[in-house]
Design brief:
36% helix, Rossmann fold, seven-stranded mixed β-sheet, 245 residues, 9 helices, globular, alpha/beta, two-stranded antiparallel sheet
């Protein structure tokens, strides 16, 4: 595992302050098509309970609500949650630490964590918490970055001799097998692994975004033949260890 830790970040309180600063400026947000793709991986039905851990501005929660799910989000950045309420009218979110979820055991049919496990002080504890709040037959969707991403760390190391630092307070990269071990060893057993490089546009606005960026279109076309182990990131669909095998 590669770890990049900014020296000024010494505690969870420091990390919360850093994320408030990030969301006060540029924020952290994918294209809408990305969140729609994530939801397409899950067999959801109206009325099921859905939790997005480290939900940021609430994009995934918003689309889950559109699917008539009982969707909730938690994040420890008050600024992120306030932006979600203002921009998307997402009000079913609360300030909370992912490593101490404020929910009872077996509370949710689905738990998602999109690009955040690698940023926690204690990722093992966060995974155990997600497993705890999942129903025995529930599904977790975990999105994490690959150490050996061909168009990410490998290309960046080729150019600069280092791992890519996205500017967040604490960043980790791991291999496909490494992430699998971390999840399985802490209560979430992956039953399917999906690669992610870029997502095909699912809205007109996202299609226009690609048309204005020819290099992204070229990379998008290379997604299908790209080997799983060289993809930018992995999505693990998991059952809680005590649940469905």
């Amino acid at each position: 595992m590669i770890e990049i830790r900014h020296q000024q970040i010494q505690s969870v309180a420091d990390e919360m302050e850093a994320y408030d600063h990030i969301y006060s400026s540029k924020g952290i947000r994918h294209l809408d098509s990305f969140y729609l793709w994530i939801l397409s991986l899950l067999d959801t039905h109206p009325g099921q309970r859905f939790l997005d851990v480290s939900s940021g501005e609430g994009s995934l929660v918003r689309f889950a609500l559109d699917r008539k799910l009982q969707a909730f989000g938690i994040d420890f950045s008050r600024i992120a949650l306030a932006k979600g309420a203002a921009d998307y009218s997402v009000t079913s979110s609360a300030v909370s630490d992912a490593q101490q979820l404020p929910f009872a055991d077996d509370s949710f049919d689905f738990v998602t964590n999109i690009g955040s496990v690698e940023h926690y002080f204690d990722p093992e504890m966060a995974v155990r918490e997600m497993s705890r709040v999942l129903k025995p037959e529930g599904t977790a969707c975990i999105f994490v970055p690959n150490t050996f991403s061909l168009f990410g760390n490998i290309q960046y190391a080729w150019q600069f001799g280092d791992a890519f630092d996205d500017g967040q307070p604490l960043q980790r990269y791991n291999t496909r097998a490494g992430w699998h071990r971390l999840l399985a060893g802490n209560g979430l057993r992956p039953f399917k692994t999906v690669k992610w490089e870029l997502q095909w546009p699912r809205t007109y606005r996202d299609a226009l975004w690609y048309l204005l960026r020819p290099s992204k279109v070229a990379r998008l076309l290379l997604t299908a033949p790209l080997p799983l182990n060289l993809a930018n990131s992995f999505v693990y669909l998991c059952h809680p260890v005590r649940g469905v095998e």
